[in-house]
Amino acid sequence: MKIRKNIAVSDTGFLFNPSTGDSYSVNPIGMDIVRLMKQNKELNEIKQAIMSEYVCDEATFEKDYYDFSMVLRNYKLLEDE
Amino acid sequence: MNKPKYTIAVTGLNAIDSPGPGLAIIRGLKDAKSFDVRIIGLAYEALEPGIYLHEFVDKTYQIPFPTAGQDVLFERLAYINEEENIDFLFPNFDAELYNFIKLQKQLENELGIKMVLPTLDQFEERHKVNLYEYGLKHGIKVPKARAVYNTIEIPAIANKYGYPVVVKGKFYDAKIAYNMEQASQHFNKISAQWGLPILIQEFVRGSEVNVCGIGDGKGKLIGAVPMRKLYITDKGKAWAGISLDNEQLLEITRSMVDSTKWNGPFEMEFVKTVDDEYYLLEINPRFPAWCYLTVGAGQNQMEALINLAFGKKVKPFKTYKIGTMFIRYSTDLIVDINEFEKISTVGEL
């Protein structure tokens, strides 16, 4: 799962899609996940990074990660697979 | 280096909720680095706000409404030119363009006033009633549409396209109808204001994206900035917008300019579907009211157009700043009644 290359993410969690003009705000965890996705990290690497930074069990991470990626897909922020 | 100073006349000073492009063009001209300007406003009505914005408009003259005809318009412009020695004129309303296109040669030859306008064929061909055929000819997707002169013609077309349909005036206004009753109401309301025919158009769902650009009349695109409307007023006008990174839209624009040999400024209005298909809704043969965004994004298209008109070498713009936004605002001008009196009675301010 990869974030589209042209999506910009700011330090304050502001996401901008220059193809559509849409912009979004993500919270700090969302910002971390998007950044890791932009670095082409695999799911396991993202999971490890988030679980080492935040208090979170594996099942909760996977559920929330799945939900978050569905949101990203709905907003067409992910590369087509 | 000494910069030339041009006297440029501009219409469309109605900076209202459905604004004319005049003030945006003037701001672009005032920002020009290659020349200085003196701005002559051309107004139809005494309450056009631009008349009183003296930091933008040096002097304003009233001109006759388009229905008065070309002779009356030429006579008035000849008088204004005697006073001001106009170098260039920007007509900015669809409804006045026909007269200006017809007068173009006469204004240049007899008064020395230049304009950059589409040819009459280009102007007529892209009319809303001809747009579907225009799309077929130039390879651009356009929603299907039929011109109607009576409400009894609507059901057959609407049944073919399926509801909703868009009911459009020939110059202005468009409303969505979800059934025959609504379509009839819109037909009657729009035709009462803008005349016949009325256009019944297939409804294409999506977001509105527009392109502001200029063609050099030989098939080359000099500049183009795509914009998505972020906030749309109840009149369908952009109150905020943002420049987009959209190569597909630029390619469609390049192809249109190449295929039509478009001369001068234009605005192309599209709907982008969820499948990333673009349907052309309209081509406006002039700068749009949001054209100052092109200056903000790094393409002063108004400056480029003036330089083209005066035979200067103009390199096509290669880039623009993506993510540049505009947000329109309204404010109250305080005006002395003496100024209103002057423009109302003498026709000059």
What does this structure look like?
Helix content of chain A is 48%, strand content 10%. With 81 residues, chain A is mainly alpha-helical. Chain A has one domain. In chain A, strands 1-2-3 form a three-stranded antiparallel β-sheet, with helices on one face. In chain A, a hairpin with a 6-residue loop joins strand 2 and strand 3. The radius of gyration of chain A is 12 Å and the shape is globular. With 349 residues, chain B is an alpha+beta fold. Chain B has three domains: 125 residues, Rossmann fold, CATH 3.40.50.20; 59 residues, 2-Layer Sandwich (Dna Ligase, domain 1), CATH 3.30.1490; 123 residues, ATP-grasp fold, B domain (D-amino Acid Aminotransferase, Chain A, domain 1, 2-Layer Sandwich). In chain B, the strands form three sheets. Chain B has a six-stranded antiparallel β-sheet with strand order 13-12-9-10-11-14. In chain B, strands 3-2-1-4 form a four-stranded parallel β-sheet, covered by helices on one side. A four-stranded antiparallel β-sheet of chain B has the order 5-8-6-7, with helices on one face. In chain B, helix 2 packs across helix 3. The longest helix of chain B has 18 residues. Chain B is globular.
Blueprint of the fold:
The complex is a heterodimer of chains A (81) and B (349).
Chain A lengths: L7 E2 L4 E3 L6 E3 L2 H11 L4 H11 L4 H17 L7
Antiparallel strand pairs in A: 1-2, 2-3
Chain B lengths: L4 E6 L11 H9 L5 E8 L15 E4 L7 H15 L3 E3 L3 H18 L8 H6 L5 H8 L6 E4 L5 H8 L3 E4 L5 E4 L2 H15 L3 E5 L4 E10 L4 E12 L5 E6 L3 H14 L2 E10 L5 E7 L7 H5 L4 H9 L15 E3 L9 H9 L4
